[in-house]
Amino acid sequence: MEVTTSPVREPLITGKKTLHDITYDVCRHVENKPNVAWLLALATAMGVLAIGAYAVWRTLWDGIGMWGNNKTVGWAWDITNFVWWIGIGHAGTLISAILLLFRQKWRNAVNRAAEAMTIFAVLAAAVFPILHTGRPWLTAYWVFPLPNVFGSLWIDFNSPLVWDVFAVSTYFTVSLVFWYIGLIPDFATIRDRAKGIISRTIYGALSFGWNGSAKTWERYEAVSLILAGLATPLVLSVHTIVSMDFATSVIPGWHTTIFPPYFVAGAIFSGFAMVLTLMIITRRLFRLTDYITMQHIELMNIIILVTGSIVGVAYLTELFMAWYSGVEYEQYAFLNRATGPYWWAYGIMMTCNVVSPQLFWIRKIRTSIVATFALSIVVNIGMWFERFVIIVTSLHRDFLPSSWVMFYPTMFDVGTYLFTFGLFFTLFFLFVKFFPVINMAEVKTILKSSSDNTVVHHKIEEDTKVTTH
Amino acid sequence: MEKSRYLVGIFDDEDILIHAVKNMRGAGVRIHECYTPYPVHGLGSALGYRRSRLPIAAFIFGVTGLSLALLMQFYMLGIDWPMIVGGKNYASLPIFIPVGFELTVLISALGMVGVFMVISDLRPYGKAKVFDLRATDDKMVMAIDLSRNKRIDIRRIEDMLTTSGASEIHERSL
Prior knowledge:
Chain A is an all-alpha fold. Chain A contains 18 helices and no strands. Chain A has helices at residues 19-31, 36-62, 77-101, 107-131, 136-139, 160-193, 197-206, 214-247, 259-285, 294-325, 328-339, 343-355, 363-366, 369-396, 411-434, 440-445, 447-450, 454-463. The longest helix of chain A is centred in the middle third of the chain and has 34 residues, at 160-193. Chain B is α+β, with helices and mostly antiparallel strands. Chain B has two domains: 5-51 and 135-173, 2-Layer Sandwich (Alpha-Beta Plaits), CATH 3.30.70; 54-119, no CATH class. Chain B has five helices and four strands. Chain B has a four-stranded antiparallel beta sheet with strand order 2-3-1-4. In chain B, helix 3 (54-80) runs antiparallel to helix 4 (93-119). The N and C termini of chain B lie close together (10 Å). Chains A and B meet through helix 1, helix 6, helix 7, helix 8 and helix 16 of A and helix 1, strand 2, helix 3, helix 4 and helix 5 of B.
């Protein structure tokens, strides 16, 4: 029997897996005792979370004056970090929704972890708008259209910040629902394998009574497709609206129509970098190299290359438009970005975001784990600096030269940022241990078409001979 | 609830299962349900299921979400407390599009998933009706309710299952 694997496409599942192997390889991490590497990773993340929690505590106790923001630079690390985290979240939805609509089979192995990353990144992002209100226990609900003590002076729907509240909370809710719907069948798999009473009860509760009936699968598929259809414009809208926080203002350097597409491309760019950072660690830690293959890594690197190039074009367009507009404030804003006191931040941004992804044109770099891991971190550093450059350099040169200042972060800015890192990684490490880190059901659907297991192919040929009784 | 007797056929492969379903149904056997570890395309139509109408539910919820969002914004800024902000109209449609869009998506997604949960009887601590524990691992399971197939001899059904490619056959009360 000849091998029926496509000679054109690389197999997406290697190691000659059967259906049961997939179940075993994913479930054993949930069922086995945690390994030392995972415990160390979790302890580190929780340590960072604890250090960050002190900074958050001081911010709440003493007020947001603990941060380095000043009268001129009223927005600084807080919104930089917020936009950075929200952007990172975008890759998860792109993989789970847009690649589903495009029928990209390789998404099946990475969508679960990427969606988890989305949800944790949005949670990390939410820390900043909540903290920046100063006393969140008094003010956090003011952003919602609720009747209030002022005789129902409603929130102002003219404000993009209000749109942002709706966009981010919808995004979080829909991503969470989408993720959970996908988890239900896999929780049922763990439940049916569980030996202990505790795990059977917990995963039994989480699996919502799923039994894999054909009718439910049919509905499940319909729900997944519609959710993907809803999440696709949603993910584009979220960063569009985030960019409008800036674009609808009259600050030179912010007031541009290019912002929405430019922000969305940047978000996907940084999101894929973070997915790669996490997946390279996870596949190593849990020995999932047969499911998250070099082929997956290469495809994600190509997306980084494409979106990185879009970001590069956007930077150049901004510079051109600043010159072409003839507006001297706009021209000054961009000249000041490149040559002013924050030239080094601009330089880091340009190097990390425009130059470094171009290395992925080289196949050797694109298919090297070490290079991919290093570049994924470089890209995320670059994308943080992009937001810092946009926000701080535009603000620190006010319309009134007497209020020109520099921004210096305090230890509490750093600490709050660390807090979100701790939060993100603690949640992520808990997720990889206790949840099925790969979508077993969806990977099983592509086993026949996209694995290197010739026995499975062989079997199909044999089996189709048995037709009538 | 009274327990029913079922004949359970276990299959190793999705294609054999679909063939078996077609054969059995062609021979007049009523299949209770099939259980698979992953979505099998073509199984639903082989079993004679109609296309899911959940997309219609999603659309209705979406329209509801959009209407509520627009009504809310027009009422709050246009009627209840009109205010001039930046010289703009009290209430103008373009401004209401972002929140309108977000609430369309939110209500549509939550509503559709809610309907899905209710009609599929999925709820926290829901009790799963499991014929074979391997149905969520690597086996395809076909369950035949014997009380609904009284006209056909049980032996004949077993034979049909075997010739259609079932690797195991059990009888279960559930």
